[in-house]
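Tokens as discussed.
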């Protein structure tokens, strides 16, 4: 027993000596588990970032760190300064050679991107974050704040400001607008935003209804006749769906169409609405204006 206790004391002395001499493992500036379930860490915050998802690009800039971006995907177009950065192709299948040439410290991309393994095989570290809901956006902002080495809780403070903006938009909405049942189309097909989508959650925060249930998935493809049967009070169309009313059979019978309760958003407005990013309050404002105008 005495010999065993002596070995334990000796081991503890060795550990203490190693710590004093700085022989322990290097400390980590940050360590997170990304949306692939992969643990990612670095010894210092990244100075050179590549973002391959518009919502992440916008989140980095909303956190005041646009200057760290050295390249973005072809769809990242906000804020204006990111348009001057090298374009790296589509986020799901980007230009790998162009990314490597930029020598980034970290590449931010969607969990569904096919680029992760290829970049990692070339020694480029990646972090997959793919916000698809309000809760995902809150988590992504917190994670990005940690990764960027920002003061603790800065990402959470940004989220709280967005949440307060949503609440203010909802309180300002008239009772008639809050009673509206909405059909929101994100693309030709028709592809709709259901209750479970980021767009659907924003509508719900405003107090409006959504005729497309969560059970159908976030962005289901519907039969145009399904929309006729649902008979929404207001129709909202992204810019890619502007010709839908002249194509889909039976839509001329919809009350919303007959009574002009259709909002068609411009391309820049559609970007705001469909991206699960920090322009969430602006998106709510666009929806609220549509509802107030059409439900008078």
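Sequence:
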């Amino acid at each position: 027993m005495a010999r065993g206790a002596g070995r334990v004391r000796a081991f503890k002395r060795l550990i203490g000596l190693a710590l004093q001499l700085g022989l322990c493992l290097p400390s980590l500036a940050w360590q997170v588990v990304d949306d692939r379930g992969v643990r990612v860490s670095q010894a210092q915050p990244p100075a050179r970032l590549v973002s391959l998802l518009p919502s992440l690009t916008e989140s980095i800039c909303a956190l005041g760190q646009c200057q760290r971006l050295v390249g973005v995907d072809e769809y990242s177009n906000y804020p204006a300064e990111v348009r001057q950065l090298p374009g790296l192709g589509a986020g799901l299948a980007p230009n790998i050679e162009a990314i490597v040439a930029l020598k980034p410290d970290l590449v931010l991309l969607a969990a569904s991107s096919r680029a992760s393994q290829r970049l990692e095989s070339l020694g480029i570290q990646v972090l997959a974050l793919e916000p698809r809901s309000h809760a995902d956006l809150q988590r992504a902002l917190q994670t990005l704040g940690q990764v960027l080495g920002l003061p603790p809780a800065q990402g959470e403070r940004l989220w709280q400001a967005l949440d307060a903006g949503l609440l203010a938009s909802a309180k300002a909405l008239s009772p008639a607008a809050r009673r509206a049942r909405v059909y929101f189309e994100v693309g030709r097909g028709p592809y709709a935003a259901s209750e479970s989508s980021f767009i659907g959650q924003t509508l719900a925060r405003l107090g409006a209804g959504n005729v497309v249930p969560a059970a159908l998935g976030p962005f289901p493809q519907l039969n145009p006749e399904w929309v006729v049967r649902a008979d929404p009070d207001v129709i909202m169309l992204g810019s890619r769906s502007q010709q839908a009313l002249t194509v889909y059979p039976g839509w001329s019978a919809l009350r919303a169409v007959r009574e002009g309760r259709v909002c068609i958003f411009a391309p820049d407005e559609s970007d705001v609405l469909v991206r699960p990013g920090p322009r969430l309050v602006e998106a709510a404002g666009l929806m609220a204006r549509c509802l107030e105008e059409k439900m008078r």
